From TrEMBL:
PANTHER family: ATP-DEPENDENT DNA HELICASE HOMOLOG RECG, CHLOROPLASTIC. Keywords: ATP-binding, DNA damage, DNA recombination, DNA repair, DNA-binding, Helicase, Hydrolase, Isomerase, Nucleotide-binding. It catalyses: Couples ATP hydrolysis with the unwinding of duplex DNA by translocating in the 3'-5' direction; ATP + H2O = ADP + phosphate + H(+). SMART domains: DEXDc, HELICc. Residues 466-619 form the Helicase C-terminal domain. PROSITE patterns: HELICASE_ATP_BIND_1, HELICASE_CTER. The keyword Cytoplasm does not apply. Its EC number is 5.6.2.4. It comes from the Bacteria. Residues 279-440 form the Helicase ATP-binding domain. InterPro entries: ATP-dep_DNA_helicase_RecG (IPR004609), DEAD/DEAH_box_helicase_dom (IPR011545), Helicase_ATP-bd (IPR014001), Helicase_C-like (IPR001650), NA-bd_OB-fold (IPR012340), P-loop_NTPase (IPR027417), RecG/Mfd (IPR047112), RecG_dom3_C (IPR045562). This is ATP-dependent DNA helicase RecG. Belongs to the helicase family. RecG subfamily.
Length: 684
């Protein structure tokens, strides 16, 4: 791995007060070089003065003139109202919060420059809280646009700007990219780029500057993407240099299981299984992400991978995010494995002390080859004597440290992560570049696409009638509610209320209830009753979002669908459509809809392909929200956007490999520049 070093020249000088250093740290600024990369949010144009008569509503502009009236008014609230006059007209300035020093600055007869957004007020054109400065006849205009930086309370723009300008002037801003590479990529130097972004000239293309398409912005975004790719590729190479058990594909158990299955693997399942099997045979630890749409058959692929480890005398741990999913995995896999003489063990936090201790002992003594459970699997008292493979289901539900803790149970186990939330290609390239990725891109035969309908809450009675009709015809249905308890801020139907209401409205149906606050026994009993058909209609919170498999459930109603994210809606919808019958998902929404909610519902209505939904979700929300817990484990992007800057990302990926091979010194310098305070990201 390339070591990171840090230049003493970047350390803050002793003259900066401790209080200022604390505020800078809140902004993620820990050294002087961080100041160089603390780039402006926007710019103010103080390079020109506009005549008052030429002002445009809604546009931030600078004017210059003489104060001809200044008065503190007390209605409708205490305000300082001034009139500024130039040769073309009069403009009102209004201050709601002001100090005596400002009143003195804005006395009648003073000549000032005022910068602010122009709008129509009670007295005509006005600026509210403009930026004002005294301006004599010889006061020169600024020669560059004025940057406006992200800041925090108690750290004025002037103070921040002073420290940034000092860093720009005093630090060595040498380039970390080879000159030939810069020429080939047609990128400007790093020094020229940051200096231009902190001090753009008055004749610059402001549109390109604000949209971050200017060549200086492209250089910064490329550098950031390159640093991320370098760090991820280094981690990838480091992992491949470690030793792991070779788990050869012996076929003792895998072939026997395949012969007993009531279905055949799809072409995509066979392809991903071959990729995983090849990785397990290597002498370095596998770290592979298995992704596939809802219902694509990831579980059987993971089980066959587990059997390859078990055939070689190693143990396997399968971790799921919820007890419902863990328990379902346990029962399904136990039914498949017991004919092979393999008895899995189930471990969860809610087990009785005696049962939990028995499970822990079976694991520690090597009596069980497969342990299935929740986060209870990585507690200190759980010891795996010979852990060969860790499988993490719904990996985005877990934090990085949780996954690392489970991996730490073995010397160097292979790791397979599964996700039914498809990851767009650009996101996978950027944030999962340290993993190998396998994709199951087809559904098993016989799956009928789920019909999705958007229905206003005002038509609830029609929906009830449809549910009753379906259940009396022999089908089952889910009714999903987003909250368990009442909320004063969100007027949402709760699961408890809805269960009571539906039981009264549908007396000829058996209505069940499951939510996260039920104890495990009650939760499992409710799910078992639904699975066996004892319950017609199951009212549930989003606890059933992943993994629940009831083929006879052919209808789902989702309350307040406008409040949910696209990934969650797609996951929930995937609970139906698992049998031969045509399935229906009704998204109940309440008016009025926000623009974002309207866009989300349109996407889920028009698309059933999880990868297309994920791509559009990325465009709507950005990577931060989509990544969930993983964002605490990889360097998030501050400047680049993986959707808009896909071409730069492709280029950065290729250049990262080139630099690690041919320009290691430059790669080390580049990582020092961008990752000096984020070294822990390299160890995820």
């Amino acid at each position: 791995m390339l070591p990171l070093c840090f230049s003493i020249s970047s350390v803050f000088p002793a003259s900066i007060p401790e209080a200022t250093l604390t505020k800078l740290a809140k902004l993620g600024i820990h050294n002087r070089f961080d100041l160089v990369l603390h780039l402006p949010l926007r710019y103010e144009d103080e390079t020109r003065v506009t005549q008052i008569v030429e002002l445009v509503h809604g546009v931030s502009t600078q004017v210059e003139g003489e104060i001809i009236h200044s008065e503190v008014m007390f209605r409708p609230r205490r305000s300082l109202i001034c009139q500024l006059q130039d040769s073309s007209g009069v403009l009102h300035l209004r201050f709601l919060n002001f100090y005596p020093s400002q009143q003195k600055q804005l006395e009648v007869g003073k000549k000032i420059r005022a910068l602010g957004e122009v709008r129509m007020g009670y007295f005509g054109m006005e600026m509210v809280h403009p930026k004002c400065r005294v301006a004599g006849e010889s006061t020169p205009l600024k020669q560059a646009l004025t940057p406006v930086y992200p800041t925090t309370a108690g750290l004025p723009q002037a103070t921040l700007s002073k420290h940034i300008q000092a860093a720009l002037n005093e630090l060595e801003l040498s380039d970390t990219l080879p000159a030939d590479l810069l020429t080939r990529l047609k990128l400007p130097s790093f020094a020229d780029s940051v200096r231009l972004l902190h001090n753009p000239p008055s004749d610059i293309d402001e549109d390109a500057l604000l949209k971050r398409t200017h060549h200086a912005w492209l250089r910064i975004k490329f550098d950031e993407l390159l640093a991320q790719q370098l760090s991820m590729r280094i981690h990838y190479r480091k992992r491949r240099s470690r030793n792991a058990p070779r788990l050869r594909a012996l076929g003792h158990f895998t072939e026997r299981l395949l012969q007993t299955l009531p279905f055949s693997l799809t072409t995509a399942q066979q392809k991903t299984l071959r990729e995983i099997s090849r990785d397990l045979e290597q002498a370095h630890p596998m770290q592979r992400l298995l992704q596939g749409d809802v219902g694509s058959g990831k579980t059987i692929v993971a089980l066959l991978a587990a059997l390859q480890a078990i055939e070689n005398g190693y143990q396997v741990a399968l971790m799921s995010p919820t007890e419902i999913l863990a328990e379902q995995h346990y029962h399904k896999l136990r039914d498949w494995l017991e004919p092979l003489g393999i008895s899995p063990v189930w471990l969860s936090g809610s087990l009785k002390k005696k049962d939990k201790q028995a499970a822990i002992e079976r694991i520690a003594q090597g009596e069980t080859q497969l342990a299935i459970g929740t986060h209870a699997l990585f507690q200190d008292q759980v010891i795996f004597p010979k852990l060969g493979l860790v499988i993490v289901d719904e990996q985005h539900k877990f934090g990085v440290q949780q996954r690392l803790a489970l991996r730490g149970k073995g010397d160097e186990p292979h790791q397979l992560m599964m996700s039914a939330t498809p990851i767009p290609r650009t996101l996978a390239m950027s944030y999962y570049a340290d993993l190998d990725v396998s994709v199951i891109d087809e559904l098993p035969p016989g799956r009928t696409p789920v019909i999705t309908k958007l229905v206003s809450d005002s038509r609830r009675e029609e929906v009830l009638a449809r549910v009753r009709q379906a259940c009396l015809a022999g089908q089952q249905a889910y009714w999903i509610c987003p909250l368990i308890d009442e909320s004063d801020t969100l007027e949402l139907q709760t699961a408890l209320e809805t269960h009571q209401r539906l039981a009264q409205a549908l007396p000829d149906l058996r209505v069940g209830l499951v939510h996260g606050k039920l104890n495990t026994v009650e939760k499992l009993h409710a799910m078992a009753a639904f699975k066996t058909g004892e319950t017609h209609l199951l009212v549930a919170t989003t606890v059933v979002e992943v993994g629940v498999d009831v083929p006879n459930a052919a209808m789902m109603v989702i309350e307040h669908a406008e409040r949910m994210g696209l990934a969650q809606l797609h996951q929930l919808r995937g609970r139906v459509g698992r049998g031969a019958a045509q399935s229906l998902c009704i998204l109940l929404f309440q008016q009025p809809l926000s623009e974002l909610a309207r866009a989300r519902l349109k996407i889920i209505y028009e698309n059933t392909d999880g990868f297309e939904i994920a791509q559009q979700d990325l465009s709507l929300r950005g990577p931060g929200e989509l990544l969930g817990a993983r964002q605490s484990g990889v360097p998030m992007l501050r400047f680049a956007d993986v959707t808009e800057d896909a071409a730069l990302l492709n280029c950065a990926q290729a250049v990262a490999d080139e630099m690690l091979c041919d320009f290691q010194q430059e790669a080390r310098a580049h990582l020092q520049r961008w990752m000096a305070n984020r070294q822990d990201y390299l160890h995820v």
